[in-house]
Specification:
195 residues, alpha+beta, 3-stranded antiparallel β-sheet, 7 helices, 44% helix, 13% strand, binds zinc ion
């Protein structure tokens, strides 16, 4: 396999750039945007297969074509966002906010909290009058995730669900009925064997 003359990277839409830095060989792959001319460079192993090279750029948001350089477009040109914006700005938001659905302002949260105080039994831990996170969300015209988040913030934990409780009560009543029928049956069978 001494065929160093033909490289799998020849005639590709990207360029393979090899440099020697402090005596060490370093290979970068560069892709040029057909629209704005931006060059993006990714450091990779020189033996990286062409499709893998391309997939690294794709993962960065590029539109790629393995042979056609004019079909390679940078993420900024694709999305229309300014290219000065570093991708880190997105993840720079506090981690705690990730739990909450995006959007509620302090005012909105206050409004939801006020509404919740009127329809949630904080002590017993349940909604009043068949209300749920969903009905509150509908009433206020906000996503139900916001209601849930606001409820969590207030410490309004659902300890029991009236709907679940009513089903549990029914099961208990049925169980009692079954026990009564069973003892009736037992009594009849006892009478028959003894008689
Ligand atoms: Zn571009």
């Amino acid at each position: 396999m001494g065929e160093q003359m033909t490289s799998p990277h020849e005639n590709r839409s990207y360029r393979k750039k090899s440099t020697v830095i402090e005596g060490r060989y370093r290979t970068d792959f560069a892709l040029t945007c057909a629209t704005c001319g931006t060059v993006d460079t990714i450091h990779m192993d020189p033996v990286t297969p062409p499709d893998v090279v391309l997939s690294k750029f794709t993962r960065r948001g590029w539109a790629t074509d393995i042979r056609n350089p004019s079909a390679c477009v940078c993420p900024s040109c694709l999305t229309g966002k300014p290219k000065t914006m570093p991708p880190e700005t997105k993840s720079a938001e506090p981690e705690t906010k990730a739990e909450m659905p995006k959007g509620p302002t302090v005012q909105q949260l206050k409004r939801i909290a006020e509404h919740l105080r009127g329809c949630f039994h904080a002590e017993n831990g349940h909604y009043l009058d068949g209300q749920t996170d969903h009905t509150v969300a509908d009433a206020l015209g906000v996503p139900w995730g916001w209601v849930r988040a606001a409820r969590d913030l207030l410490g309004f934990t659902i300890k029991f669900d009236p709907e679940v409780k009513s089903i549990r009560d029914e099961i208990a009543a049925l169980a009692e009925m079954i026990l009564a029928l069973q003892s009736k049956l037992d009594a009849i069978e006892r009478r028959r064997t003894n008689g």
